[in-house]
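User: I'm new to structure prediction. If I give you an amino acid sequence, what do you actually give back? Let's try with this one:
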Amino acid sequence: MLRRRGFRPIPASALFDGLRRGLHVTFDDAFRDILDVIPLLERSGFHATVFAVTSSTDDDRPFDVPELAKEAADHPQRLVTMRWSELGELAGRGFEIGSHTVTHPHLTTLTDAELDRELGDSRVRIEDELKRPCGLLAYPYGEHNARVQAAARRCGYTAAFGLWAGTEPSNRYALPRIDLYRRDSLPRATLKTTFLKPHASAVLARVRGRTSSVYSQGDSPR
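Assistant: Good question. You get back a string of structure tokens that encode the predicted 3D arrangement of the chain. For your 222 residues, that looks like this:
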């Protein structure tokens, strides 16, 4: 659908070149079932970044955060994450491995020292394990503010991604993404990836007094 609408797959290295209608796929949490779609992405020529939570890469336990407790109980295999060897294989096949922190916390609630540990330690661990640079960060839950962005810069990241609230296409530490989930039908996904949907969501969010989690830069999803 996106290809038919003229979107072009781009690698992570081209995310900041100002290309219109460029498409880069991202996966948060490094769930193991991502491996099922990797061959399809390769055949289709799509580039992707997988954001890993470093504390969940050492064993086969389901990803453990309170927000996913019900799904972990109902479908534990869905929440099993990749091990370091699997992330290394993906990196060797040309996929980018980014950081999703050490423990997937709500970053805006942390102290500066805690931020440095979550952001800095995860980047160092990924680089040590995979023997390659880790310059990209995805904020857990899409949550960030100026203090979290400053910590991302301080910890050595070249860019960091949120969702909708507080994102700025011109700010490398507050880059927007469009979120897609199992519940999103094709019509809903189509709407999410048009320039109309984010602006409509923003208006509704202000009316309802809450923020939306969808953003698109001029019909250019990342």
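You can read the tokens as a compact description of the fold. Here is one thing that stands out. The CA atoms of residues 165 and 211 lie 6 Å apart.
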